[in-house]
Design brief:
Length: about 270
């Protein structure tokens, strides 16, 4: 009886079933690994959200307490609310190409140097303006407040190609740049420029232009957690599905074998005496 039971499963040695079994075995650790990868992404996004939230809700401080010429911002300094007092240098402002607003429209960010009282410079991203279909000439930019003024904004790290994915194209039209980078701007301005830059949040621009940049928001960490559970459920379902297919194959083979067996002749009744 034991040999008969083993014989029922000999089909598992066929080419088709060997390949199916190998694929099944390979899928289980792969799906488990993908689940751990999603768990890692969940932890990363949660940590990032916590850092951003803590920075945005921290008490505003003067920008020079966190930034200095040549300083690279740390993770805890990024997004901090800072204030700066000085005079906007509109004669040397530039625009940043290929930037979108909240509605996905392509335009420019307006980057204006703010000369502080001690002569240092902080770069201020005043917000977004439309391109109006023309990107080869310097656009019309709304003027900032004249004279000494105090602005509030989020402290942002220098943009690089590796971090942003934006290629730093050369040979652009006059006063247009691709990336906001304090080191590059320090060379252009020949000034002591604080590391990073500010995304202005106050005061609001007159007439709503430039359009202020919305806060960074939060990444969807719970989505990664759901994907993690999904991959691990898939990993658990794979062997169950394989066993279901095996049972169905056994049933189909048993039914086919029963159909091939000849019907037994009925026994004739004994003749009456």
């Amino acid at each position: 009886m034991y040999r008969r039971g083993v014989h029922r499963y000999r089909f598992l040695l066929s080419r088709q079933w060997v390949i199916l079994t190998i694929v099944t075995i390979a899928l289980i650790p792969t799906m488990i690994k993908l689940g751990f990868w999603q768990h890692h992404r969940y932890q990363e996004r949660t940590a990032r959200n916590n850092l951003v939230s803590a920075a945005l809700h921290a008490k505003p401080v003067p920008v020079e307490k966190l930034a200095s010429p040549g300083h690279q911002l740390s993770r805890t300094e990024k997004y901090r609310t800072v204030t700066a007092t000085g005079t906007f240098d509109t004669a040397r402002q530039v625009v940043v190409r290929r930037r979108t607003n909240a509605d996905g429209e392509v335009g420019f960010h307006v980057l204006t140097p703010l000369v502080l009282t001690d002569g240092k410079v902080v770069l201020v991203n005043r917000g977004w303006i439309p391109a109006d279909g023309v990107q080869t000439t310097f656009p019309k930019v709304p003027a900032p407040p004249a004279g000494r003024t105090t602005v509030t904004g989020r402290l942002m790290a220098d943009e690089t190609t590796s971090a942003s994915g934006i290629k730093n194209v050369k040979g652009l039209p006059d006063r247009q740049i691709m990336l906001i980078n304090s080191t590059e701007e320090a060379r252009r301005l020949d000034a002591r420029v604080l590391g990073g830059y500010m995304e202005q949040t106050a005061p609001a621009a007159k007439g709503g232009s430039p359009e202020q940049i919305s806060d960074p928001g939060s990444e969807d960490a719970p989505l990664n957690y759901a994907y993690m559970l999904q991959w691990w459920l898939f990993a658990a379902a794979v062997p169950v599905g394989w066993w279901f297919l095996v049972r169905r194959e056994l049933r189909d083979r048993a039914e086919a074998a029963a159909e091939r067996q000849p019907e037994q002749p009925e026994e004739s009744e004994p003749a009456a005496v």
